[in-house]
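Form 7-S
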Amino acid sequence: MTLLLALLWLASAAPGTTAAERGRQAAEAEVTTATVFGIGGQGNTFAFVFDRSGSMSEYEGRPLAAAKAELINALKTLRPTNQFAIIFYNHRIAVFNPFEPQPTRLVFGDDSIKRQAERFVNQISAAGGTQHLEAMKLALRLAPDVLFFLTDGREPPLTARQLDDLDRLNRGTVIHAIEFGAGPAPEGDCFLKHLARRSAGQYVYIDVTKLPKR
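Output:
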């Protein structure tokens, strides 16, 4: 929260509250719950790391269309004092950065920025291969409270060494993993479940054959 917003919040607090209570209320005013495919992530700062590889265009493009719709809906719940980052990836990274050529950073969720973000999301198309690691590293360096990681790329997986590298970069981010696949959820463990468990996050599997046509 900016200093001005914090002061305005404190000034409007109910009479009789202590300084500590007003400070706690100011901090809580920023907390928002963003939801992606039923997973609710609570925090002040959010990152969305979404796969845009060629396979996301299968099934008449429903996987990518559903992912983009969920992301846009999540953005709409953010308050102006919340911050966010959007990273789409295949074998390369596409980052929402309205302040280029400045380095990628978390941006505030005011209406103007969210409209620009929606335009960025809508122009994303699916193509190419799948390389998870650099996109995840970039997101974790931004140190968001919550990271939503969505991919249909169980193969190639992140290796144990790569997962350890991400652990070292993680400064308290909760990672929620959303896996797209065709048909029933595969049995057994996978790197996505590891990512979620290691950060106290959640994992969900989405059968893309059941996604609605758009």
